[in-house]
Amino acid sequence: MLSGIEGVNGTLLEAGQQLINTRCEQLVAKLETQIIIAMAGFDVGLLQQAMSDSTSSLDVVLPSDPNRGWGAPAVVADSTLQHGILQATSHKEAVPKAWQGQALSNEGKPRIKADLLTEVRGKIVVNEELLAQASQRLVVIQAEAELRQASDGDDLNKLLAAISKCEGIDGVNEELLAGSKVSSVKKAEAQLSASCDGGVLATIQAVLDSVSVVKGINVSVLENARQTLVKIAEDQLRTAVSGEDAEAIRSAVMDAEAVEGVNADLLADALTRMQELQRKACFARLVILKIHNNGV
Questions:
Q1: Residue 215 near residue 233, CB atoms below 8 Å
Q2: I need a labelling partner for 9 at 20 to 30 A (CA). Which of 82, 132, 211, 214 fits?
Q3: Is the pLDDT score of 221 beyond 80?
Q4: pLDDT tens per residue across span 152-180
């Protein structure tokens, strides 16, 4: 603003310009340091804030409007100003009326030259390469945060998805990834064991199908689960065959046919028993119908 006034000390102006340059450099250095510190850690929010500050800080320290929202100042011609000064009988009269009454107007408030404001705003720019590195680091620590959260949780599918995501991102901590894979194996084996203890055929089969894709899971654990499926299916067949309910046998047969390894002879016996019961039921219905018709 002073550079628009004739007669202002040039050394003072130069010192002011140098101070502006120094303050801009200090601000940029501060913003870049914040980003570097945040990149070194694992806090997603801290890095996001540092990156946001690198752009939002510009609007905090500098206005975007040279007139600072007060509107353009009233223009008083040199001749008018000179005439007013010569004719004034007091200091107040020497000041143009457009510049008076600051309590009621914004005329006396300092503006910033548009070109100077543009120049200074252009000095407050964070290194683009650093911002690119920060963006990449943000992707990494976000993925790692999701992986840690999934590892601490009980959702195996969520953990497997987080592992898969991290495997596709360069820079993810290898030790963290390896630990999460170990955790996925433990969760898979525990989930499979719990389903086997539950004794529900459909549940065991569903869990077995989902955990079979987990890398590193113990083969013997999978085999034990398959053997449990066979045992449950065969036990259900034996229980149904010992009864008199053809529909119960049909349901047990359908379950057993979906399980690999069930004894073929046992299945055949169950089918024979089911057909026998169905014939008995059919014969009983015919007898009842005949009795009914004779009674009529």
A1: no
A2: 82
A3: yes
A4: 998 999 999 999 999 999 999 999 999 99
Predicted confidence band of residue 1 (pLDDT cuts 50, 70, 90): very low
The reported pTM is: 0.67
Candidates 67, 78, 148; CA nearest to 109 is 67
Alpha carbon 91 to chain centroid, angstroms = 66
What angle is formed at CA 260 by the lines to CA 259 and CA 265, rounded to 5 degrees?
Answer: 90
Give a three-class secondary structure readout of the chain: CHHHCCCCCHHHHHHHHHHHHHHHHHHHHHHHHHHHHHHHCCCHHHHHHHHHHHHHHHHHHCCCCCCCCCCCCCCCCHHHHHHHHHHCCCHHHHCCHHHCCCCCCCCCCCCCCHHHHHHHHHHCCCCHHHHHHHHHHHHHHHHHHHHHHHHHCCCHHHHHHHHHHHHCCCCCCHHHHHHHHHHHHHHHHHHHHHHHHHCCHHHHHHHHHHHCCCCCCCHHHHHHHHHHHHHHHHHHHHHHHCCCCHHHHHHHHHHHHCCCCCCHHHHHHHHHHHHHHHHHHHHHHHHHHHHHHHHC
Residue 218's Cβ-side half-sphere holds a number of Cα atoms within 13 Å equal to 10
Other CB atoms within a 10 A radius of the CB of residue 291 amount to 10
Q: Which two tokens stand for residue 287?
A: 């007898």
Q: What is the mean pLDDT of residues 95-110?
A: 61
**What would the two tokens of residue 93 be?**
């009269």
Gap between the Cα atoms of 193 and 152, Å rounded: 19
- For residue 35, the tally of other CB atoms under 10 A from its CB is 24
pLDDT band at 119 (very low <50, low <70, confident <90, very high): confident
133-153 tens-digit pLDDT: 999 999 999 999 999 999 999
